[in-house]
Amino acid sequence: MQQIHGTHDLLLVVLSLIIAFFASITALDTARRVHFATGLRRVIWLVSGSAAMGIGIWSMHFIATLAFKLPVPITHDGVLVAVSVIIAIAASLCGLYFSSRPNADNLKLLIGGTIMGIGIGAMHYIGMIAIQGVYITYDAILFGLSIFVAIGASTITLMLALHFRDKEGGISAKDKLVGGTIMGSAIAGIHYIGMAAALFKVDPTGAAKINATLIDTPELVVAVTISTIVIIGLILIVSFRLDKRLDQEIAFKDAILEAVLDCVIIMDNNGQILECNPSVTRTFGYVRKKLLGQGIEKLFISPSSITDGEGDFLCDVRIEATALQSNGEEFPIELTIKQLKLDGCPLFTVYIRDITRFKEAENTIKLLAYEDSLTGLPNRRFFMENLAEAFKKAKSRNTKLAVLFLDLDRFKIINDSMGHTFGDLLLIGVAKRLKKELMSRGIVARNGGDEFTILLENMNDDEVRNLTNNILKSLARPFYLEGQEVYVTISIGIAMYPEDGEDQETLIKNADIAMYEAKANGRNRYAFFECVRVADNSQLLRLENELRFALERNQLVVYYQPRLNIHTGQIIGVEALIRWNHPQKGMIPPDEFIPQAEESGLIIPIGNWVLRTAIAQCDKWRETGLPLEVSVNLSAVQFQKPDIVDTISGILQDENVNPSLLNLEITENMMMDADYSTRLLNELKSLGVTISIDDFGTGFNSLWALKQMPIDHIKIDRFFLTNVKDNPENNAIVKAIISIGHSLELNVIAEGVENKNQLLYLKELGCHEIQGYYVSPPLPAEAFEKWMNEWDMSKLYE
């Protein structure tokens, strides 16, 4: 048979290359969408993408075949043409399946590329067999090369698809151009190497083979081109619209994350950071790209603080931890971890807040509230808190402790004659010597004025006596102040636990009594309480007996002091304050009888009476159009009673009062047992009442506890309002307390407001409410009602 040679129609060749280019772009984009899709959508993208890619590859081959013009008429077998289309789609399906697998690796891509390459080769050569009218043989070397190139090109195609698939935001125009050109050239290379391998000869029997299954070629160019353009075009249009919508969603997500002030980190089950918002880079100092892919433990001093004992992340709980900036600087944070699932895989969102300011405010309050500004010694609050802890240890370990009460002899004479500045220098000198003598054996604090207290743990009487003698000798040496030699002596009272008192108040009281005995015996000496003649025990017993009858004889009364909204001028509540109308001594304030009531246990019936009286009065006011919230103080003894919740609930039901009108006030020291306090306060809150911390800043306080407990109000102690604008320490404490209240969205109430300047300054700082004599003194119920009718806010600013 005679060999014949053909020529290529350049226009159709270019058209075939264009189709190969767009088919490649479709393949890249489809592989990415199959990877990110799930469920039915994944199947739809896999099938439609395979069809588009397969038809595109086949169309390139078929149009390129039609571009080859032979000097004899040819046609195509329609059945074989259809078979070649199906094979092209099947080969594409195989390639997309392997490249879109979550765990795709080089071996899987090689397997998929081999299957896909063989399929494309089969498509090509079956398509060649479909040509009727000529006899075709093949050059063995070029034939083998075409199959090898088909496998290699398919593998490269799958690798490119794998490279671009993870770009969730879409493939850039540059990537599409480069990727489409490489893949399109590879696909076209398969065909043209295969065409070069073909040797065409005249088939004398060609005309006899023409039958009904044969199709003419001229019309095929238009049909195939239009069909391919429509199919690929539809896929690309859908893809373009999805990319546009995805861009909008990503922009919306980024805008939300940018607006979030807290740090937001998304991590996988292994703690690897997948995404973060700009606040993370600002807070931790890392560049976002360098942070992605890193373990979240890189951000913490102790990574175990965010996991449980089994290494699982602690979800849905607030955690305080120490974080680490890129420069190595440590800072405190609060974080919460939330779990979610994506495609069945667990992901975790970590919300982090820098709480440096909170901690600084907390430390400022502790420093200023627990330290004596003149001497630098701990103050009475610090001493009392540590004494409470020492009592717990002494009771649990069955050990001894001692309290020393120290008072300078004739200090008032020195202070008055030499001046207050000189007196302050003397107090500073005394404080230094006390610290030096004590070293680390105990705590020395300034109680106020010229009084000091010392706490000694695990010491017997002889050890205490030796230390006390050393203190007396140290202070007997002269002080040299402003060029003058000054002598001062000191009287010391000593009380020992457990002999001289079973609680801290009793022990301090007895040490004070012993100190006065030392002064009475000539000063500049010490006295143990056991050697003191206690003359006032009978008086305490008499007071206790009278207090027992006070409740029965209606001698106790409740006064009410209004709480004022500092910004609106509205009276929104009252505090119930007990008074004892003694038949001989007249009106006795609570400070003089409540401690004895607590010690004797009488505080329980007295406290319950105050609750019932105040709640009943609240109900009367409500009926007359005065729905005022009434605040009632709970004592530490009441707070520890197991039935306190039932007691309050019963009174509310008996008086038929809305629980929201009752506010319970507790002190910070009552919350030292955090677990018990949290549970009890949550039970009280469940009744519908509100909770206040009274005298905030004067006792135990913890920002963590404040955030964990269901608190509604914090009350600034009146002590801090003394010269609040001129006293730097009080000023700093008040500002810090108001700042914490604002940060935790708590209502801040200032007690003890006595003048206009305090009112204006508190309003400037953003305090919410005030209470004090500047608004009104505590009044009996009837007098309070009259005062309310005459109330005029303008009087405050006169």
Q: Can you tell me about this structure?
A:
It is built from 25 helices and 29 strands. Helix 2 (39-67) packs across helix 6 (173-197) and helix 5 (140-165) runs antiparallel to helix 6 (173-197). The protein is of the alpha+beta class. It has 4 domains: 3-243, no CATH class; 260-354, Beta-Lactamase, CATH 3.30.450; 376-535, Alpha-Beta Plaits, CATH 3.30.70; 554-787, TIM Barrel, CATH 3.20.20.450. Strands 21-22-24-25-26-27-28-29 form an 8-stranded mixed barrel, surrounded by 4 helices. A 5-stranded antiparallel β-sheet has the order 10-9-13-12-11. A hairpin with a 2-residue loop joins strand 15 and strand 16 (451-457).
Summarize the structure.
The chain is of the alpha+beta class and 798 residues long. Helix 22 links the parallel strand 26 (690-696) and strand 27.
How would the blueprint of this fold be written?
Layout: E1 3-4, E2 7-8, H1 10-36, H2 39-67, E3 68-69, E4 75-77, H3 78-99, H4 106-129, E5 131-132, E6 134-138, H5 140-165, H6 173-197, E7 198-202, E8 214-215, H7 218-259, E9 263-268, E10 273-276, H8 278-284, H9 288-291, E11 319-324, E12 330-342, E13 345-354, H10 356-370, H11 380-397, E14 401-408, H12 411-418, H13 420-438, E15 442-448, E16 451-457, H14 461-476, E17 479-481, E18 484-486, E19 490-497, H15 504-520, E20 526-528, H16 537-552, E21 556-565, E22 571-582, E23 586-588, H17 594-600, H18 603-623, E24 629-633, H19 636-640, H20 644-655, E25 662-667, H21 674-686, E26 690-696, H22 703-708, E27 713-716, H23 728-743, E28 747-751, H24 756-765, E29 769-771, H25 781-790
Parallel strand pairs: 19-20, 22-24, 24-25, 25-26, 26-27, 27-28, 28-29
Antiparallel strand pairs: 1-7, 2-3, 4-5, 4-8, 6-7, 9-10, 9-13, 11-12, 12-13, 14-16, 14-19, 15-16, 17-18, 21-22, 21-29, 22-23
Helix pairs in contact: 1-2, 1-5, 1-6, 1-7, 2-3, 2-4, 2-6, 2-7, 3-4, 3-5, 4-5, 5-6, 10-23, 12-13, 13-14, 18-20
